[in-house]
Design goal:
This protein is an alpha/beta fold. The protein folds into 2 domains: 71 residues, 60s Ribosomal Protein L30, Chain: A (2-Layer Sandwich), CATH 3.30.1330.30; 163 residues, 3-Layer(aba) Sandwich (Alpha/beta knot), CATH 3.40.1280.10. The chain is 36% helix and 19% strand. The protein is built from 9 helices and 10 strands. It has a 6-stranded parallel beta sheet, sandwiched between helices. It is elongated, with a radius of gyration of 19 Å. The two termini are 33 Å apart.
């Protein structure tokens, strides 16, 4: 794994407009608070049209991100990886005649948790990870480093909303399993030796209630100590390795 891999930052409103129009995969756009002008409004319209994630920040942060170059009040982070089309990935997985195993991350926000999950997912034979375009941790240099390079080996798909992915998976006869404490059902009682997509929630809010309602199964891990929850990457690893256990024996 090359620890020198970094997310590319581009700066300048016109450069970012051109990057969006060319189809570049953009993680996030940082905009200076109070930015105005015709060119900014053109950029703002493109951001809204493409549903890109933005953050309004002080000029000092933009100076750091652009290394004090002329950023014109805008800096964009371009992802170091290319994302996969979910529908095509599902079709290719089914064509392989193997039992599909997907992982949906409902607005997981910590890049280190994300990287650790990618690493475990690659080790457990996950066919693809699905994230939402807005509100999810970016695939940046720290994510890649924490994943030990697995981010380059495992397909990652971005969708407008996790619900879009759920509809598509369920239409392909892939059952969805939500990891949640809001159930009495143990993961050990769920049949994972079938086409499955495991849903993990965010670090603080868990799985969105509307997503939880759509899941085919809800399952939890037994907690025998006094602490009421596990780190999401640890819980994800337990779910994935229970899937491996069921499919191996």
């Amino acid at each position: 794994m090359d620890n020198k891999i970094e997310t590319t930052n581009i700066f300048g409103i016109r450069a970012i407009i051109e990057a969006i129009e060319s189809g570049s995969t953009i993680n996030k756009i940082y905009l200076q608070k109070g930015l105005r002008g015709n060119l900014f409004f053109e950029l703002d319209n493109l951001i809204k049209k493409n549903k890109l994630t933005t953050s309004m920040v002080p000029v000092e942060k933009l100076d750091r991100l652009s290394k004090n170059n002329n950023h014109q009040g805008a800096v964009a982070q371009i992802s170091p990886i290319e994302f996969y089309d979910l529908e095509q990935l599902i079709e290719k997985t089914i064509e392989k005649k193997e039992i599909p195993l997907f992982l949906l991350l409902d607005q997981l926000s910590d890049v280190r948790n994300f990287g650790a999950i990618i690493r475990t997912a690659e080790c457990t034979g996950v066919n693809g990870i699905i994230i939402q375009k807005n509100g999810s941790a970016p695939v940046n240099a720290e994510t890649i480093k924490t994943s030990a390079g697995a981010a380059f080996k495992l397909p990652i798909c971005r969708v407008d909303h996790i619900k879009d992915a759920l509809f598509l998976l369920q239409a392909s006869n892939i059952k969805t399993v939500a990891a949640t404490e809001k159930t009495e059902e143990s993961i050990y009682n769920i049949n994972l030796n079938q086409p499955i997509a495991i849903i993990m929630g965010s670090e603080h809010r868990g799985i969105n209630p509307s997503i939880l309602k759509m899941a085919d199964y809800k399952a939890k891990l037994p907690l025998l100590g006094e602490i009421a929850s596990l780190n999401v990457s640890v819980a994800c690893g337990a779910f994935l390795y229970e899937t491996v256990r069921q499919r191996s024996f």
